[in-house]
Amino acid sequence: MAKFYINPDYIFEASWEVCNKVGGIYAVLSTRAKTLQDKMKDHIIFIGPDCWGDKDCPYFEQDDSLLASWRKAASKEGLYVRIGRWKVPGKPIAILVDFKPFYAQKDMIYTRLWELYQVDSLHAYGDYDEASMFSYAAGKVVESFYKHEIPCSKKVIFHGNEWMCGLGLLYIHHAIPQIATIFTTHATSIGRSIAGNNKPLYDYLTGYNGDQMAQELNMQSKHSIEKQTAKYVDCFTTVSDITDRECAQLLERPADVVLPNGFENDFVPHGAIFSRKRREARRALIEVANDLLGTDYKDDVLIVSISGRYEFRNKGIDVFIDAMNRLRTDNDLKKDVLAFIEVPGWVAGPRKDLQNRIKRGGTYKTPLENPCITHWLHNMDQDRVLGMMRSIGFDNTQAGHVKLIFIPCYLLGDDGILNKPYFDVILGNDLCIYPSYYEPWGYTPLEAVAFKVPCITTDLAGFGLWVNKERGHYSEISEGVKVIHRTDSNYNEVADTIKATVEEFAAFDEKQVKAARHQAEMISRRALWGNFIKYYQQAYDFALRRAEERLKEV
After folding, report:
1. In angstroms, rounded to a whole number, what is the distance separating the alpha carbons of residues 80 and 76?
2. CA 61, CA 86: separation in Å to the nearest integer?
C-alpha cells in the first residue's frame, strides 16, 4: 500500500542563489521551480538576497502588484523587499530582501543564537556575516508573511539551503514553531575544506571529528551554524548518499531524506536545431584551436572537455591534465584530440592576437605565443592550470596526438573569443570528462548527457554513484557514462583509466558512437525533476509530521 503523504499548503525556500547565479545551487532551484510551481500555483515562494544595489537583477522581473498589501505591512516592520517573478521556467514568485539594515543588530542576533542554539559566531570571518544577515532577514520575511497572509490552519514549510540559511531556519524554529523547517546541505563546509586542503577525506573519514577539524581549518563558525541547524530542524537533507555519509560523520547527524539533484531538459534543443547548434559549436571550437595553435584540424578531430568551478583538485582538473598528457604520446589512439579546460580564472581579457586571427579568417601555420590559453590572466605565473602544464612540459608545441587549451572564463556568450553560452558550446563535444575527487552531486556530467554527450565521472561524485545504482553495476562508456572508481590513493589509476577510456571511445565506429550518445540521453531522462520530486514530497511529509509531534511535546 502506497504511503499517504501530507502536502504543504505553502513552501518558502531561501537560498543565497535565488535570482543570483553564482553556483550550482542556482541550477538546482531554478530547474526545480517549474515542477513545484505547477503543483503549488504561487504558493511556492523563493527568497533571495537583494544584493544588486541600483542595478537591475537580470534574473528577476519586479512586479509591484504582487503581494502589494503585505509589502506595505512588511516595510512598516523594517523589512524592505522587492517582489516579482524569477525569470526561469514556471516563473515562481521571488522575494528579494535587503539584509543590510540588520547589520546594526548583528551582535544581538548572534548573542541570542548562542543562548538558544549554542551557535558559535565568535570566529566568524569572510562571508559569514553577510550570509547570516541575509538568512536572518529571510526568516523575518517568512515570519511577517505568515502572520499577515496565511491562516493558522495551513501547513507551511520553510526550506533553507546551505549553512548560509541556517540562522533563518533556527529563528523560525523558535519564533514560529508551527512552521516546519527543512535544511539541505549540498556539501558540508568541513568536508569541502578537508578536500580543498589536500587532506585525505575518504580513507580517514571515520576518524575525523568535525568540531576538531573546524578548529584546525579555522572554520568554527560555519561548521557550528551548519551542525546546529542540522540538529534542530524538522527535516535534515542532503543531495547524495556519499554526502550523507559525510554528514553523519562530520555533523554527527545523518540525513532524514536524501534529495538527489534533478533538472529540466527544456533548454536542450531538438531535431534540426540540435544538429545545427552542434555543427556551429564544433566549428567554433576547431576554429579557435587552429588559430591559436597554427594547426589545420578538421571536423573528424575528437573534442573533449572538462568544465565547472575552478577547484583544481576537487573537480579533478589535475588528473584531467595528467591523463591528457599521458594520451599525448599514445600511438594506439585512433584520432587526434582537442581537449579544453573550461573553468573561470582571473581573466584580464581576451587575447587581441587571437581575436585578430579569428576576425581575419584563413589558416595559419605557426602558433601564437603561449598557445595554451585563449584569454590573458592577471596571475599567469601563479595559475595552477598553466603551472601544471609547464611543470610536465605540455605547451602544445611538441608533436603529439593531443592539444590542451585553457578557456579561463565564464561562457556567457560575450567572452570575446568563442562568444557562445556554455550550453551552446557543450553540445560540440564528443566526450566530457569530470574526474571529481569531491563532488556531492555533479551537475556538469548530468548536463553533458542531456546534450547526448557521453561522459566520464567517478564514484566520488553523487551523480556517478546514482548512475551505478541505476545500471546495477559500474557503468561503462558504451552505456553513455563511464564511472571510474576513485579513492584517496589511486590517482595514477584514475589518470590511466581516463586515458584508456578516451582511447576506447576514439576507436568506436559510427554505430557505437550513436548508441553511446543515445544511452547518455536516456540516463539523463531518469534524472528529470518529474522523477526526482518524489524525494521532496517525502521530505515535506517528514518535516510536517515532525513539526506536529514537536508541537505536541510543548
Report:
1. 9
2. 6
CA neighbor of 98 nearest in space, from 68, 71, 125, 124: 71
Measured CA distances, 468 to 124, 460, 521, 554 (Å): 40, 12, 16, 45
Amino acid at 497: T
Supply 551's cell numbers.
508541537
* 436/444 Cα distance (integer angstroms): 11
- Name the nearest CA neighbour of 266 among 450, 398, 61: 450
pLDDT above 60 for 529? yes
2 pLDDT higher than 70 = no
Q: Which residue's C-alpha cell is 505536541?
A: 552
Question: Using CB atoms within 10 A of its CB, is residue 212 exposed (0-12), middle (13-18) or buried (19+)?
Answer: exposed
In the chain, % of residues over pLDDT 70: 99
271: Cβ contacts below 8 Å, ≥ 6 apart: none
Indicate the range of 194-198, 254-258, 413-417, 537-541 predicted with least confidence.
194-198
DSSP helix/strand/coil, 49: strand
Taking only the tens place, the pLDDT of each residue in 28-47 is 999 999 999 999 999 999 99
**Hey, which residues does 339 pair with through a beta bridge?**
304, 404
Residue 398 has pLDDT above 90, yes or no: no
- Which long-range contacts (C-beta less than 8 Å, at least 24 apart) are formed by 215-219? 217/190, 217/193, 218/123, 218/125, 219/189, 219/190, 219/193
Pairing of strands 180-185, 93-97: unpaired
User: For residue 185, which of 310, 31, 21, 25 has the smallest C-alpha distance?
Assistant: 25
**Exposure string over 329-343, b if 16+ CB within 10 A, otherwise e:** ebeebebbbbbbbbb
Report the distance separating Cα 163 and Cα 227, nearest Å.
Answer: 9
> Strand 44-49 and strand 93-97: pairing?
parallel
CA distance 214 to 282: 46
CA 438 to chain centroid, in Å, comes to 12
- Look up residue 499 and give its three cell numbers: 586515458
Backbone angles phi, psi at 368, to 5 degrees: -75, 165
User: Are 243 and 185 a contacting pair, CB within 8 Å?
Assistant: yes
Q: 326: which 3 cell numbers?
A: 599521458
Give residues with Cβ within 8 angstroms of 268, minimum separation 6: 274, 423, 450, 451
Q: Check pLDDT > 80 for residue 1.
A: no
In 3-state terms, what secondary structure has residue 72? helix
